[in-house]
Specification:
The chain is built from three helices and six strands, in the order ββααββαββ. It is of the alpha+beta class. Strand 3 and strand 4 form a beta hairpin. It is globular. 30% of the residues are buried. GO terms for molecular function: protein serine/threonine kinase activity. It holds the Pfam family HATPase_c_2.
Length: 145
Amino acid sequence: MAYTIDRYPSEDSPRLGAMTLHPTPESVPRARRWFRKFITPYDPACSVEDCVLMISELVTNAIRYGQADDPWVVRVEWFREKTSLRVEVHNPGFPANVRLRKPDANDAHGRGLLLVDSIAESWHSGPSRFGGTLVSFVVADAWPE
């Protein structure tokens, strides 16, 4: 199995959906497609394409920097919190390694969190409840009050 998706979250939960991805490059476009498909029925007022870009960056980082001795997965979850959208990306890497970088113009990598930092209302990194690393972002005013 390459992936799973939670299409039917509980009505009393703020979680709108979740996906579990294998740590392969093919999972990045899959995450973009799924998020577009499963957020659309909730009719968000925010830019879905901005969210897709941020998810793409965070899933790429999770795949690149996640580490585990056993086979592992990347988890993506999205939540509605009042009028905001919060997206979490989990991987088994070490939380202290998440930081904003200041790449030189010639650097091929290191801009993902800068994009998230410039687009999202806020972002956070720390320990994941699944073990490993959580990186999340919040988009304010994703839905009207």
